[in-house]
Recover the amino acids of this structure.
């Protein structure tokens, strides 16, 4: 668990909602968008390195263990057939629905979530079998789409306000034409409060103002050579300066990367957005589902092999798998790769 130099765990916060009562707050934007840097400083808006899913796995285990022995089958039903189903099932896909692969015991479901490494999150409408990488929020105003699949547009501040409202509670209202009917007259403690327009506007202004921490990687002869490699290799076609993204969507099959997130989940569009390369030094793991831990690993041609052991997310029950797609740069010489990575780390 990442701990800041002052001894705090930034993913959590104490909350006082009524006099004399202190609670531990865990469900917030900061939970997934705060990063503890190597020096112990805290980057607000950074890609989280908190183990979000393993924490959920522990909660599942505790919930099951706290139930009386004769009620533990009921705990399995609640976790699998209610929580997991509502979060991840895609019934209209039939046999392709990833929820069909969900285990039938609490311990196995917990192990499924344990397989999701820090920097990723099996968020609602996605899947723990191919969880999306958590994005950083630095200079978010310059990005035209939210989510790796480009599910929502970011045209102006109202879009960000709506996105925040939906993902922090309003998503409970989605029933997908009766597939997930909401609970009738749920008790108040199950309901999320409605955010006021003023609160959402203030939140969106704050997010749009987030900046990355100072970049320790300064330009030098090696990175300057890397910039020339970047141009010569054609990287700028999709990642042009100054944003280092063309802010476009690309069909999954055109990129060749694993299509499950965008093809077999309720966050799917059939596309992946072209990510910005800005501030890459301050995040990781990389790829839409975090298959590699470092930029160096991304340019390792061995990742295309079926016997490759991913340095990032491997997948539930797997020991090896190919990290396919986006083969650009894999055939560069070792010196050019080293220079290219050095350049990428200087981009801010």
């Amino acid at each position: 668990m990442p701990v800041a130099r002052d001894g705090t765990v930034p993913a959590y916060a104490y909350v006082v909602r009524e006099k004399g009562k202190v609670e531990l707050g865990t469900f917030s934007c900061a939970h997934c968008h705060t990063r503890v840097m190597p020096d112990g400083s805290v980057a607000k808006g950074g890609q989280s390195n908190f183990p979000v899913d393993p924490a959920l796995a522990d909660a599942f285990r505790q919930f099951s263990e706290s139930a009386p022995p004769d009620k533990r089958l009921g705990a399995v039903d609640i976790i699998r057939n209610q929580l997991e189903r509502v979060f991840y099932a895609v019934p209209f896909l039939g046999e392709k629905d990833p929820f069909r692969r969900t285990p039938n015991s609490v311990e196995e479901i917990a192990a499924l979530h344990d397989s999701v490494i820090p920097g990723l999150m099996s968020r609602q409408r996605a899947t723990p079998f191919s969880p999306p990488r958590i994005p950083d929020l630095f200079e978010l105003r310059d990005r035209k789409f939210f989510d790796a699949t480009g599910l929502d547009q970011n045209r102006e501040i109202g879009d960000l306000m709506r996105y925040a409202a939906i993902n922090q509670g309003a998503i409970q209202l989605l029933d997908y034409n009766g597939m997930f009917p909401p609970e009738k007259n749920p008790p108040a403690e199950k309901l999320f409060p409605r955010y006021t327009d003023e609160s959402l506007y203030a939140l969106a202004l704050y997010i749009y103002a987030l900046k990355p921490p100072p970049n320790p990687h300064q330009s030098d002869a090696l990175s300057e050579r890397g910039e020339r490699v970047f141009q010569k290799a054609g990287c700028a076609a999709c990642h042009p300066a100054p944003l280092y993204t063309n802010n476009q969507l690309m069909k999954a099959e055109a990129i060749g990367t694993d299509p499950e997130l965008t093809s077999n989940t309720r966050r799917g569009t059939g596309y992946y957005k072209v990510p910005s390369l800005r501030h890459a030094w301050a995040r990781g793991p990389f790829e839409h589902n975090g298959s590699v831990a470092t930029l160096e690993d991304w340019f390792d041609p061995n990742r295309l092999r079926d016997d490759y052991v991913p340095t990032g997310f491997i997948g539930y029950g797997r020991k090896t798998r190919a990290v396919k797609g986006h083969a650009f740069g894999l055939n560069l010489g070792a010196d050019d790769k080293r220079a290219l990575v050095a350049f990428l780390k200087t981009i801010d």
Q: What stands out?
A: The longest strand covers residues 13-18. Strands lie at 13-18, 21-25, 34-36, 42-44, 145-146, 152-153, 249-251, 271-273. The first helix runs from residue 29 to 32. Residues 291 and 312 are 4 Å apart (CA to CA).
